[in-house]
Design a protein that fits this description.
With 497 residues, this protein is α/β, with parallel strands linked by helices. The protein has a domain of 238 residues: Amidase signature (AS) domain (Amidase signature (AS) enzymes, Alpha-Beta Complex), CATH 3.90.1300.10. An 11-stranded mixed sheet has the order 1-3-2-4-6-5-10-11-9-7-8, sandwiched between helices. The longest helix is centred in the last third of the chain and has 24 residues. It is globular, with a radius of gyration of 22 Å. This is Glutamyl-tRNA amidotransferase subunit A.
């Protein structure tokens, strides 16, 4: 496979696709708070905002494939939300704000819920997923469904020839490209955190059981979680604050009883001044050695900035058994050699080849699963039975990664730290912040904060303080606009660099 970088092929730049404006209002990178201020004074309505985002979809989505379906009821919903506002009712900070959800999250409307599979086309869901119902109650405007791939894949607006990061990449690419204000994704192993970092977004992946999985097409009952994407920490937190909570249709959510803060999570967002009281751990051997040298250098520069703001940094706060639980490929299992090939399903579509791909007829012509279908078949053979071997493996994984892993690293032999700072490839409950752009590929990467179960309040506090420091200091180690490298490329492998 050719090692094409961003320096070859189509040239890109942040101004390639200027976002449409409305009445001199700049919507590019507009935050939820900024949009609400415009709507509160009458200079913008939900209908007008929806139309702006729809124009943006028509402008760029043919390149990134981030939206699989538009909500035919969106205009009617926006009109109703505007009427509520006109009558003096504003449900909250998400009132009238357009968003998309991953297409494995059920919506009881005219849209499909397919998980990217033709097999589910036309299926009928009994109700909205719990998280969708909560967002509707909060006044958020469901604009459409975000793509997840069966064969064709989404693309990152930073470099369209590279993988955008995982199963929730459609929603991440949409937010990164200003196609939506925020989005929901699902994570089993990295599918929120990886797309967030590879699209220069904030990603919040909460403790399993904090956000209900009811109405979400499942992958793992023990690991699935619903997370949020935003261009800022506050935007992602608004969505997260709206969707967490106990749901009788998901027993795992009962575990949060007594562990969530009265009044929600937004109250914990803070500025850089609180970093003077912070103590962060660097689990170098457990995580950092698996990042490339450039990523290490940039993230360490950002950590030096955090330290200069008064935070205490403690190195080698390791997971005690990291040598046992870390794959030879590192934590990035979705893209490692343990799957044989680098995501063979992730290819773009050649619309002109009439049923072939790469010059070959079926089955060689369609992107194959030569190294991945065996796992699917083995799963079918199990018939859903969880036997003693399964529970032994589950117990080992839970102990070695949590009580005997993350919790032990946070305890740090009696010198506890507030959070672990890691490259965001571990697949655990974390918050990731945009931190830089790789010079060779043009792809973003992030810095993740990892805590113990139910520690979201603390993670939000520290992450918001670090983001405030990034914005106030003038550092380049933060979110940057998409460059659209390779936007004209067609029928090329999506590479996982």
């Amino acid at each position: 496979m050719p090692n094409k970088t961003r320096h070859e092929g189509s040239t890109g730049n942040p101004g390639l696709f200027p976002i449409p404006k409305y009445a001199c209002i700049t919507l590019e990178e507009a935050t939820i708070d900024q949009l609400q201020r415009h709507m509160s004074v009458g200079s913008l309505t939900a209908v007008q905002l929806l139309n702006c985002y729809l124009k943006r979809i028509y402008q760029v989505d043919e390149y990134i494939n981030s939206v699989i379906e538009l909500n035919p009821d969106a205009l009617e919903i926006a009109t109703a939300l505007d009427a509520e506002r006109g009558a003096g009712t504003v449900r909250g900070p998400l009132h009238g704000i357009p968003f998309v959800v991953k297409d494995n999250i059920a919506t009881k409307d005219q849209m499909e819920t397919t998980a990217g599979s033709w097999m589910l086309l036309g299926s009928v869901v009994p109700r909205d997923a719990h998280v969708v119902a909560k967002l509707r109650q909060a006044g958020a405007l469901l604009m459409g469904k975000a793509t997840l791939s069966e064969w064709a894949d989404m693309r990152s607006p930073y470099n369209l020839t590279l993988s955008p990061g995982g199963g929730s990449s459609g929603g991440a690419a949409a937010v990164a490209a200003d196609v939506a204000a925020f989005s929901l994704g699902t994570e089993t192993n990295g599918s929120v955190i990886n797309p967030a970092e590879r699209n220069a977004l904030v990603g919040i992946k909460p403790t399993v059981g904090l956000t209900s999985r009811a109405g979400v097409i499942p992958e793992s009952i023990h690991r699935d979680s619903i997370g949020t994407f935003g261009r800022t920490l506050r935007d992602a937190a608004y969505a997260f604050d709206a969707i967490y909570g106990i749901d009788k249709r998901d027993n795992y959510t009962l575990a949060q009883d007594g562990k969530t803060p009265p009044g929600g999570y937004m109250q914990f967002l803070a500025d850089k001044m609180i970093l003077q009281d912070a103590k962060f751990g660097i689990p170098w051997n457990s995580f950092w050695v698996y990042a490339d040298e450039e990523q290490q250098a940039v993230l360490l520069s950002l950590i030096c900035l955090i330290e200069s703001a008064g935070a205490t940094i403690i190195n080698n706060t390791e997971l005690p058994n990291y040598q046992t639980i870390v794959s030879p490929d590192g934590w990035d299992w979705d893209f490692g050699t343990t799957r044989g090939y680098s995501n063979e399903s992730e290819y773009t579509v050649n619309y002109a080849n009439d049923g072939t791909e790469g010059g070959y007829r079926w089955p060689r012509g369609i992107p194959a699963f030569y190294s991945g279908q065996d796992g699917f078949l083995a799963s079918l053979e199990s018939k859903g039975v969880m036997d003693d071997t399964y529970f032994q493996a589950l117990t080992f994984c839970q102990h070695s990664t949590f009580k005997g892993g993350i919790d032990a690293a946070l305890a740090n032999n009696g010198n506890p730290v507030d959070a672990l700072l890691v490259p965001p490839d571990a697949g655990y409950p974390v918050i990731t912040l945009p931190a830089g752009i790789h010079s060779e590929t043009g792809m973003p990467f992030g810095l993740a904060l990892m805590g113990t179960a139910w520690s979201e309040a603390g993670l939000l506090k520290w992450a918001s303080a670090i983001e405030d420091l990034q914005l106030d200091s003038g550092t380049t180690y933060k979110r940057t606009l998409p460059n659209w490298y390779g936007y004209l490329e067609r029928n090329v492998p999506i590479r996982n660099l």
